[in-house]
Amino acid sequence: MDAMYIGAIALFFALTWAIATGCARMTAGGK
Amino acid sequence: MTTQAMMLLGGFMVALLALAYPLGILLARVGDGGDVPGLRWLGGVERLLYKLAGVKPGQDGGWKTYAVALLVFNGIGALFVYAVQRLQGFLPLNPQSMANISPDSAFNTAISFVSNTNWQGYSGEQAMSYLTQMVALTGQNFFSAATGIAVAFALVRGFKGRSAQSIGNFWVDLTRSTLYVLLPLSLLFAVFLMGQGVLQNFSAYQDVKLVDPIAYSTPKLDPAGQPLKDATGAPVMENLTAATQTIAMGPVASQEAIKMIGTNGGGFFNANSAHPFENPTPLSNFAQMLAIFLIPAGLCFAFGRMVGDQRQGVAVLSAMALIFLVSTVVLMGAEQTAHPQFGALGVDQAASTMQAGGNMEGKETRFGIAASSLFAAVTTAASCGAVNGMHDSFTPIGGMVPLLLIQLGEVVFGGVGSGLYGMLVFAIMAVFIAGLMIGRTPEYLGKKIQSYEMKMTAIAILVTPVLVLGGTAIAVMLDVGKAGIANPGAHGFSEILYAFSSAANNNGSAFAGLSANTPFYNAMLGVAMWFGRFAMIVPILAIAGSLAAKPRLQANSGTLPTHGPIFVGLLIGVVLLVGVLNYVPALALGPIVEHLQLHLPQ
To answer: Is the dihedral of CA B591, B474, B481, B530 positive or negative?
Structure first.
């Protein structure tokens, strides 16, 4: 169970990172 | 609304402004990076911390560097809070021998405290060791509040900067906010609270003999802890007599101070600020309300100073104050109103020297209707979430006001830092709408608001409604979601809507009545809390980075003044319009239906 919830926190972190990456790409000229 | 309520509200606003203005000067100094008057001696501590952590204070970065540091810091914080809870049974400072917290509850609480929400699915005095309360929960109270202030500083630097590539250094902002603002204020406030009677010790809980033993009836439980039922399905009851009462102890004042100042809201005790050891007197109650609004209001003054035009900060503060005042008057009026069904029975419900009148259900007699209503408005306008009464017991309209204040996005004073950056996002939206009306490129504080800023603004504003409405819809469709409802019907829907609104907007207060410490709600609300916080912060930092890189233009005849009453009105209109468009259909199914059920003939 611990692995599942620690994995969930890691997944949240990764998804937020992905959002940040998406926002950064828009800066680079995306529409 | 009674005279006492009006005097309380007026006194509160005067005291708030008197304290927030000087704090704004201090906050501006903290954000600008200079020496802080009166606290210069802490400069050595600050430099030592940088040296130990390997931070180079002069090394600022762009928004991506800032966001990465923020996410890494908070991600590690979540793992730390989770680990302490899961291991607390093996760790010291646990005189009651509290067991390790279950994985799903530890997960929910870790996300909750890292995101400054402080939603509490657990009962503090029955579940958490002193070490967990102090190191994990109180620690995150400081760090999550400092994170909010850091983001606000970064955004303000975006407006302030002139063709800059940097929005600051997250580690420096985090350190300075904690060292110069949160720690000194919390220390002073904790000492004040101890003077009022709030506990601060490491003693084991104490069993005291009751003056009069109490006989009571309670459901009999099976070995699994579930209520036993007879052949008809009714619970089997047993009669018991209590001759002693266990009085919880602990380091309460130190946690209580930052709980309020950091707009965290997570109580040491389950009853939160309704508990006499957490909020003992009317004076402590008044001071706790002030403490919630102090930094959010002070940051508005700091914003004006940092951008070089104090009128800008006053304009933002005015918009917040006007929405707050109107909401509080409605809330106080609703709670002071006579209950129609009691009225039909001829019950005297008028306020007098002998009784509070109105709706006293779920309220502390120490505080009464006015102070409970004001506390509810303050704690939900700010993203605090501490409570001194049960919002579930408010009248439908009285309960809808706190719910709507949360749903407006926690920008009416809002959380520490998050209130200001949330309101500035709405300000960007307001100048954009004004620009569309007059056909000019919108500007705010000399920065052109263009396509990229509006995309990020749209993401930041829409993240929470998606989480709230999507989460509520899933919960009311699934049996595991509906199982937690204590009051079926419109009120039960309000309980779920409130839970998701509170979680996604990082408020943390509960409507009560919803059994949310289940794997389903712990997981769902965990998702809402994390993304309600960080999926909003990321686009805001992106806006800061984009604005910082732009030149700051001089105002001309075509520039919309953003310091006057017209802009304040426009800003209020945008905040209300977005809130109404997002949430009125859902509110119609909850508190509005309940209000009609209460007042229309059956």
So the answer is: negative
The answer to whether residue B323 scores a pLDDT higher than 60 is yes
Closest partner CB to B535 (pick from A16, A24, A27): A16
User: What dihedral do alpha carbons B494, B500, B504, B505 form, nearest 10°?
Assistant: 20
Residue A12 contacts B, CB cutoff 8 Å: yes
ipTM score of the complex?
Answer: 0.93
Query: Binning pLDDT at 50, 70 and 90, where does residue A30 land?
Result: very low
Quick: pLDDT tens for A1-11.
899 999 999 99
Residue B537: name the closest of A27, A24, A16, A13 by CA.
Answer: A16
Find the chain B residues whose C-beta atoms sit closer than 8 A to any C-beta of A: 64, 67-68, 71, 75, 78-79, 82, 86, 103-104, 106-107, 110-111, 452, 455-456, 459, 523, 526-527, 530-531, 534-535, 538-539, 542, 545-546
Half-sphere exposure of B455 (CA within 13 A, CB side): 15
Q: How far apart are CA B467 and CA B473, in angstroms?
A: 10
Contact B458, B433 (CB under 8 A): no
Find the closest chain B residue to A27 by CA distance.
B452
**DSSP bridge pairs for B247:** B206
Q: How far apart are CA B561 and CA B431, in angstroms?
A: 10
Alpha carbon dihedral B271, B276, B282, B287, in 10-degree steps, equals: -70
Q: Which amino acid is at B62?
A: G
